[in-house]
Amino acid sequence: MRKFRWISAVAVLIFVATALPVQAATIPAGAETTDKQVGSLTPTVVSRLEKAVQELIGLKTAFQFDDVTDMGKTWIVEGELKDGTATLQTEYNKEKNRVDSTTIRYKISSLGKAMNAPLKTKVLNSAKAFDSKRPLQFEAFWRVKSPYQSNKPSNYWVFWGAGEQASSLYVDVDRGNAITINADYALKQVDPLLLNRAMNTFKRVSGQRIKVQHASRYKDETKGLSYWSFEDANEASEVKISAVTGKVLAVSTYGVDWNDDADFKKTFASPKYTASEALKLVKPKAQMLFNINVSGYKVKVQGNQYTFSKQQKGTDSIVAKVNKKGTFYAYSLHSSDGKMP
What we know:
The protein has helices at residues 9-19, 43-57, 111-114, 117-130, 192-206, 261-267, 275-290, and strands at residues 34-36, 63-70, 74-81, 86-93, 98-107, 138-145, 155-161, 167-172, 178-185, 214-220, 225-231, 238-242, 248-252, 298-302, 305-309, 317-322, 328-334. It is an alpha+beta fold. The protein folds into three domains: 1-175, no CATH class; 186-252, Nuclear Transport Factor 2, Chain: A; 261-334, no CATH class. It has a 17-stranded antiparallel β-sheet, covered by helices on one side. A hairpin with a 3-residue loop joins strand 2 (63-70) and strand 3. The longest helix is centred in the C-terminal third of the chain and has 16 residues, at 275-290. 31% of the residues are buried. This is PepSY domain-containing protein. Keywords: Signal. Residues 1-24 form the signal peptide. It comes from Paenibacillus peoriae.
């Protein structure tokens, strides 16, 4: 699992690259690093770095920069809060003259000081309610802002699970402090009925026995999503099952048989199937997986993706994907508002 440690500058960069949604800083392959003094940076750069840190910790908290590592295209500047509650790391992009990311790595003992009381209560209540049998416990938390990364969240708090349970809780600052949680489980900790359902679902789609090797549980409190995810050893096949209703929400098996983007565009430049052909092929799987009869559904095709929907309020739609061989290898259920139910 991901373990939190107070470690050296280079090791921290590697850790961040594997732990965060998008790394706060990356070390290019074969890059040579050179240590520099903070004073060697221009006053403008230092000012921008200070402003980025203060945005996350406030103006009243004292901090200092200690080390600078020259990565070629970027500077990695590290330091600490003077009260000893956290270390910090910033990444400055030389080419674009901007702070690409800022990370404050707090000790868990400083939670009450670093986070306001209402948000702290919200986080602890969410961790407790996530699994009544195994409440989440944390060993560290970070405050991160990477405004130029493409995926979300990019401005957030993240809490790392303690012990043997690999878990993380994200607070998306840009989304009204929306909380999402993900936790890994040993297979012996999962209801056998869910495991059997996942393996049977794999077989229904692929016709083959795919063994589940990884189990995790995900929850997005704002969207009302809560589901189990089951994957094979290579994480190439996945089944999602609602943690509330036990219904299968999505299944994908490894079906990629195109060589590259150019091959994909060429292959699916025109629909593989007509609407009636697609309905005929998907109908038995839709009934078997989701207990939905797609007779009379409309079909929309985009690339290799077929969306089956009905113009009726409250009716779920189904999205299925086809490969070059013409095999539908992935199915997912979507509610009328376009989200997974």
